[in-house]
Amino acid sequence: MKTRAENLIGIRQYLNSPNSFQDLRKLIELWQNQPAHTKKRFTTAVALCGKNPSPFLTAEGFADAVKIYDYSALRLSPTQLIKRLIFDYQPDERVQIIYYSTFPEGLTYPVDLFTQMAVFLSYKNLAVSDSDFQIPFEELLRSFEFHIQKNNIQAPLITFPKRKRRSLDAQDYPINRWAMEDIENLYVYFLSNIRFLDMKLDIQSGLFFTNHIANMHLDFERVGKWVGTLHLAISLLRHPNVQVEQIVVDTNIQEDSTISFAVQCSKINELYDYYLIPMENIIRIALDNPRKYLMDDWTQNLSTEEIQQTLENIFQAYLQFKSRAAV
Fold first, then answer.
1. Which residue ranges form the domains of the chain, and what is each CATH number?
2. SS in 3 state form for the chain?
């Protein structure tokens, strides 16, 4: 099926809070203000679960600014949904909203959905972003243009934005979120190709870009509900001919996040279930050479002992989470 635009911007959103409704409003307003040539080159779609967006959009006067594909009552898998969507999909310059579930389905579902959309609807390039715009929308578009210029279509390509500042919501977190991201990133390096460690890839910025051939190599069928982006990175970095790019981007301050500590612990559990590497092993590797394996935005002013204590605190908090979950 031929789409009007060659490039797909996919936004994943859990519509469950006042902030999430405002994120949706902001996206629509940002897209409305884009020039015509941008709207011709890019389709913007939202994969949305949670509350029904229609009453809010109607009340706010946005009904004509969006096109909604409502499959929420059907509880379809991404593969099942795509089989329906390829017949229903008629993208135009409006924001395309794919309302797939009234329930929170996790982080893997929208990544799976968008990569399959990019394959079966013949998009040359794909961006997948969180809806909270830790990376501003204008930086998303700038990064996407960089990715498109790098795409020679002959090999799988993945581009990771590198945040100048990892602006993370740390309120009410029992652990260091920056360190937790680094632990999860180490899973990616040691399960794919350690040579990419020297690039210090920012794998969890909430935004990544792929090309068509990369999306064709992805399979999320047996992957847990929280590790979609990590599994995508592992799968592509394992590919012998993969092209990996990164571009430095500015960030907004993140004041709200759907990624709770429980979600991060669930990621670790799923990584173990799928890849059989315990968290303790990853931490032991990190402590062998913390300056090499961990980002300096939180380690540079700490002693080796302080870094070790930070990682030990995370491990103990994870063990407590597992203990509570087992009860």
1. 7-255 (3.90.550.10)
2. CCCCCCEEEEEEEEECCHHHHHHHHHHHHHHHCCCHHHHHHEEEEEEEEECCCHHHHHHCCCHHHEEEEECCCCCCCHHHHHHHHHHHCCCCCCEEEEEEECCCCCCHHHHHHHHHHHHHCCCCEEEEEECCCCCCHHHHHHHHHHHHHHCCCCCCEEEEEEECCCCCCCCCCCCCHHHHHHHHHHHHHHHCCHHHHHHCCCCCCCEEEEEHHHHHCCCCCCCCCCCHHHHHHHHHHCCCCCEEEEEEECCCCCCCCCCCHHHHHHHHHHHHHHHCCCHHHHHHHHHHCHHHHCCHHHHCCCCHHHHHHHHHHHHHHHHHHHHHHHC
pLDDT tens, the chain, 327 aa long: 445 799 999 999 999 999 999 999 999 999 999 999 999 999 999 999 999 999 999 999 999 999 999 999 999 999 999 999 999 999 999 999 999 999 999 999 999 999 999 999 999 999 999 988 889 999 999 999 999 999 987 899 999 999 998 877 656 667 788 899 999 999 999 999 888 988 989 998 999 999 999 999 999 998 999 999 999 999 999 999 999 999 999 998 765 566 788 888 899 999 998 889 899 999 999 999 998 999 998 999 999 999 999 999 999 999 998 888 776
- Provide CB contacts within 8 A for 101, sequence distance 6+: 49, 50, 72, 75, 109
CA distance 181 to 92: 37
**pTM confidence score:** 0.94
Question: Based on the number of CB atoms within 10 Å of its own CB, is 167 exposed (0-12), middle (13-18) or buried (19 or more)?
Answer: middle
Alpha-carbon torsion (220, 222, 228, 230), positive or negative: negative
